[in-house]
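Hello again, I could really use a second opinion on something today. Take your time with it, there's no hurry, and the full record follows here:

___
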Amino acid sequence: MSDDMDARWAQALAEARAAPAMQTLEAALAVDEAAGARIFPPAADRFRAFALTPLDQVRVVILGQDPYHGEGQAHGLSFSVRPGVAVPRSLANIYAEMETDLGVPRARHGDLEHWARQGVLLLNAVLSVPKGQANGHRGRGWEAFTDAAIRAVDAQPQPVVFILWGAYAQAKAALVHPPHLVIASPHPSPLSARKGFLGSRPFSRANAFLVEHGRTPIDWALPDLTESETI
């Protein structure tokens, strides 16, 4: 797997990365891929969230469950897809809520790297998935590693907003303590978005908290990508 995560993350997660369960998982994934299994995102992108969002710069955490399991979608950032890939329905609902909450026009692409580079840690609880098998790698060792990442953010002195959508993400609230803020609501998937996600205003609430605590708010508006970036 790629080791291009930020140095501060590498230090904070060294013990979790060296744990026997993680060593076994990484070896098993390498064997599966060598045998021709399609696993998403590619190994080089599995720690991309930790490369784009340094630990000491995290302002918001958006926690997902596991990567998209369709060809060419996942690229290491929760809820995000590669440029040129159709916007998934959950992300479309996120855009709809952002438009209602902030008046931000809906982006024509699904690449959330603009958020990640501002300090939004786009983290999945499970960092890999077999092609076409949602939750296919749940329970294989990723959860202890990503729980360690949540604890590392929780240990930071600067207040951070944790946005937890759906029951799976909300179960991680026990890992978060003051002065950090938890914003919880139903998941933005088409099955639950109208049960409390739409109208929850997570973006304005997150920014209000950041400003209140002397931190720079997030520019949630996603810039248009150039033609070369969308191909």
